[in-house]
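Weekend entry, working from home. Most of the wet-lab plans are on hold until the incubator is repaired, so I used the time to fold the two sequences that have been sitting in the queue since the last round of cloning. Logging both here for the record. First:
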Amino acid sequence: MRKVIPIAEQSTDGSSSYLYASMPKIYPRAVHGVFARWRWLGVFLTQLVFYGLPWLEWGQRQAVLFDLQTRRFYIFGLVLYPQDFIYLTAMLIIAALSLFLFTAVAGRLWCGYACPQTVYSEIFMWIERKVEGDRGARMHLDESDFSLEKLVKKTYKHILWLGFSVWTGFTFVGYFTPIHSLGMAFLETHMGSWEVFWVFFYGFATYGNAGFMREQVCKYMCPYARFQSAMFDHDTLIVTYDSERGEPRGARSRQVAISETGLGSCVDCSLCVQVCPTGIDIRNGLQYECIGCGACADVCDGVMDKMGYDKGLVRYTTQNALLNHWDSSAMLKRVFRPRVWVYTGILWTLIIALGLSLWMRTPMKVDVLRDRGTLARMTQDGHLENVFRLQIMNATEISQLLQIEVRGAPGLTLTAGATVEVLPAQSRWAVVDVSLPYDALPAGSHKIWFDIRNADGTVNITEASVFVVPR
């Protein structure tokens, strides 16, 4: 058992009151069923993406790479620059709205099936069961005196946990440093100091959160558990105990008909508590600690099967459906209520807008800056010249040979820098000299335009600037 010493506060009358109670260690029992299969499907899919994506090749490079050193982000065929931060903002908004939508429909669906804390806790508990056994065996091992068997099992478990954690940290860093070169550097012990730090920091966080803290993260550290109630209403699907059918609860023989016992369907076996990863009793009603994983529904259905009772004593339903005894059809009509359709409409609008924006995105970016060191100067042939610096970013993966032209005033010409080549997925500065006859324009700032084109017409960019004529 986990020992937690409560802090006592002395009152004025000499009695002591405790600020918090001692919490026993939670030993979740293994469970099988429909929701357990969905949960493991979520584990498999999320980890297949996380661990597999860095090894996926796209042409001659890593398919997904956030190269912070060169400040370029590669996502399959896309090459993004820090100036494309708007796309990241849009994706974060879409993710937030998706979370709101899923919560409005089915409560903490994300927490129960796809949250990294849930996923890694499931993996770590699976390793723990394989090494130490199921709930009863683990409890007995922890309560037993020190022995060679206990030492070997505990050591073996932690070695597996640590190995998996370091692999997780290595994969995380592989999204920011090319994973093939990172792997060679790791094997040769030549990794950079920051790479070493993040591999072990992320690995340590995985080891601590999934191996030790587990439900404490969900109950006390995760902010989602605190504000989820603002997104729930009586038509939100949640894991619910049917107290009308289950009470009064009590043990009974399977050979006795339920009508003869005077009891409800709940046999008070406490298995729903034993399988809960956060250690709550679902029979006490909706609680913020519930992550909606459905483990209690799976184990309860198994008990109902053994007793010969109908399944669904603990199930996904809504509070209105439970109160009004609605069937599934009537319940789902209320689940997909106006708020859900509004969330869905906004979400699809943003997804379509983001997709169209990426599809119509110009593959080249140009920023024009005046050379502040030389505002204007006279040339030997009597022309007035301004110097401009163009930052050209190539968001394609082929070299681009660009022609630069200038317009906006009679006699305006480029005297240097009319042609520039930008390598694939690179950016460079091009210095261009723009001149015009001395008396062509009055003193002041005059707007001009730079036209940047390539030979095949796939790049056609216009950027404005000003030409300065001194007084």
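Second, folded right after the first finished:
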Amino acid sequence: MNVSYYWWILIKKFHKLILIISIVLIVVIPITISIIFLSNSNTFTNLDVDLYFNGDNAYTYVEDQLNINTTHYRKPGTQGREDCAKYFVSKFQEIDPSINYTLHNFTIHSVDCQNVLFKMNENFTNILILGAHYDSRARATKDSVNQNSPVPGANDGASGSAVLIELAKVLYNRRQNLSVQIWFLFFDAEDQGYDYSHGILGWDWCEGSTKFVQDIEDFYNSSEEHFDAMILLDMVGGANLKFISEQHSTSSLLNELFETGRQLGYTSAFPSDPIINSITDDHVPFVSYGIPSADLIINFWDNPAWPYHHTTEDIMSHISNYSLEVTGKTVEQFIYNNYLETNDQFQGNFPWNDDFNLPDSDLLTLIMIFLPIIGIASVLLIVRSRLIKSKNST
């Protein structure tokens, strides 16, 4: 009886084991990962309430920011950046001339920078932060022609800031029915880090949010007030909007935002199988501080549907009123779900403490490729061991 015959007999004997292991590695594990991701969000139904966020208004606010200064746009340390901060103040004073705001001044390598904070419903001790960065990148480092030119930053910066302004307008009209203090926080100096070996020398990403969290004790009374959550809006106005599952985000909070958007019918923007990746963004310092935080952001690194990141083509013609409205209405609905005083039935994920991170999409793909190989190799080693033992016994 030769070795090949033993081999055949043992494979035949263990074919069920081979089949079971293959099924587990190829089918069960990916399905389990998907189920864990999806089940991390409670089943709930959005509160039936009218939404007033207007994407056309938000589009105008994006355009206003780009028109403030067309030489440097909103680069830190320039007049354009300074005038944009003043623009935010003027828009919020249109909502309420007496609204409370704070200019958070700081310097990065002797460059004057400024975060801008507005507060609504300060009589409540629980705080929800809505944030976006407003600076535009100093150099178009991904541009094939104009790498030394500034980035207009229509999507990358201005879109999130525009959504905050329109949200402030619509939420102000319902503020007396909301059981939460809301902060509208505009970050400077987010977008100047190194990219393709270019940037502002010595600068890192998210300088403004990092500095704000370092000084956060100056902005609230920690003995009486507390933070419920932080929601960051970054690149939310481009055409073909599709958010990713950002893994620094608190998953129970991000999943609730995704489910809220899906129930509004925005299944393309909030896909059931989102790209998975970890992005260093303005929410990360808040996560590190202990505040549940979520980043609504798109795939900006490899996206044929929106290829304008850090180029001079990040302009108004690539901004979508609909994308802005999808983002704004989803956040508006989320706030009503959780904080409208007449609502006593909504069962979301509050207090958003649960967090489960998945491997990034590229890593997950590699895992799915190598798991079956490892599994089959393991089975063959078992078979080989049995074969040698059987041969020796004869």
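Plan for Monday: verify the second prediction. The chain has ten helices and eight strands.
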